[in-house]
Amino acid sequence: MCKTQNAHALTPRVGPHTVIRERPDSVTTDKWANPQKMWDERFAKAEPVYGETPNRFLEAQAKGWTPGARVLVPGDGYGRNGIWLARQGFCVHTVDLSPVGVERSRKDASAARVDMTIECADLAKWDWPSGEFDVVASIFVHLLSDVRPRIHASMLQALKPGGVVILEAFSPAQLRYSSGGPKRVDLLYTPEILVCDFVGAEILELAEEVVDLKEGAMHSGPGAVVRGIFRRS
User: Fold this and answer.
1) Mean pLDDT, consecutive 10-residue segments, the chain of 233 residues?
2) Count of Cβ atoms closer than 10 Å to residue 61 Cβ
3) Phi/psi at 73 (5° precision)
4) Is 51 within 8 Å of 219 (Cβ atoms)?
5) Which candidate, 111, 96, 127, 118, places its Cα nearest to that of 21?
6) What CA–CA distance (Å, rounded) separates 44 from 205?
7) Quick one: which of 142, 163, 183, 204 is 20 to 30 A from 190 by CA?
8) Residue 75 — left, alpha, or beta (φ > 0 → left; ψ -120 to 50 → alpha)?
9) Would you state the pLDDT for residue 31?
10) Which long-range contacts (CB under 8 A, 24 or more apart) does 176-179 make?
11) Which of 123, 98, 94, 79 is nearest to 37 (CA)?
12) CA-to-CA distance for 19 and 21, rounded, in angstroms?
């Protein structure tokens, strides 16, 4: 039987936004009381804190996608992955909580002369589409465990039959490293958690490994991740 932990038994609820992406050095509980404010401040910095190049796992997977495929990128922040995908000729729709990140993404997309949909919304409250996308790319989108299964199920439901969710996130082994990610175990993913969350999907790939992160100042150095590819039947 698949079991998930109750977030309320582990830690106080930190507010309406459910995506945790920050490297947590010196993070206090108070900082999560207003996650939108925190992300707005992070994305307002001149430096792109997660770099400008796409996530390597995403980049490798995109090489095999059909030209013009429809791709949904939840939690895309200031748009580094979404804009890169649009440059490759994919039809891209991104979603993020932070108005500052979304506005930055829109400006950068305009500067790059790419046409894409960039939406501001909380993934826990968003009206998720059904059967519209060829790919959902979930890159370091760490969710509180009381909403994680529902949001992951929504990612799968957003796919057309045969579409795939591409996911990379930190695993509990990341607690031994200082290269980024939350230091709360309830926000880290294991293969077992993902098997439960994406129940009914065909698992094309699912593994934990240590990779060399080179994604700006906030994701830098050896990192313990779980990578998965889940196909909707």
Assistant:
1) 38 39 43 71 84 93 97 96 97 96 96 97 96 97 92 98 98 94 90 98 98 83 97 97
2) 18
3) -125, 90
4) yes
5) 96
6) 36
7) 163
8) left
9) 54
10) 176/224, 177/221, 177/222, 177/223, 177/224, 178/25, 178/221, 179/23, 179/213, 179/219, 179/220, 179/221, 179/222, 179/223
11) 98
12) 6
DSSP class of 61:
H
CA distances from 134 to 66, 162, 166, 209 (A): 9, 8, 11, 26
User: Contacts for 206-214 with beta carbons within 8 Å, 24 or more apart?
Assistant: 208/171, 208/173, 210/173, 211/56, 213/179, 213/180, 214/51, 214/53, 214/56
Residue matched to tokens 């190049």: 53
Domains of the chain in start order, with CATH, are: 34-225 (3.40.50.150)
User: DSSP for 154-204?
Assistant: HHHHTEEEEEEEEEEEE-GGGGG--SSS-S-GGGS--HHHHHHHTTTSEEE
The Cα 26–Cα 121 span in angstroms is 27
Helix axes 80-87, 99-111, angle to 10 degrees: 30
DSSP 55: P
Task: Report pLDDT digits (tens) over 175-185.
Answer: 999 998 888 89
Determine the length of the chain.
233
